[in-house]
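ZP: hey, is the FE2/S2 (inorganic) cluster complex queued? I don't see it on the tracker
AM: it wasn't, my bad. submitting now with these inputs:
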Amino acid sequence: MFKVLDDNHEFDTQISFDGKDHLVPSNITVAAAALLIGVKSIRETPVTGAKRMPLCMMGVCYECLMKIDGVGNQRSCQTLVRQGMVIERQIGATEVEAEYYEA
Ligand code: FES
């Protein structure tokens, strides 16, 4: 459904999406890469489990949250692909690690 309009792109960046390797052009976002490789959903909502896809592609809607290199709640439309990047569909809520300081 989606394709790269500029034929000068080389598919030279290897990413892993849910354990499957793909070659995508460099300098595209993770969300764009997900659309390019034909992913049907990138996350499921914590409340109803509804499948979601990127919407605004400009960092506003937060529909594109994914687990990228082991860190959840990353806006995939604001993150460029990188060689060896490990991307996972985000299912439900994600744990957030926070340091606790005693007063
Ligand atoms: S697609 Fe809207 S914030 Fe990423």
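AM: back. The longest strand covers residues 13-17.
ZP: great, adding it to the tracker
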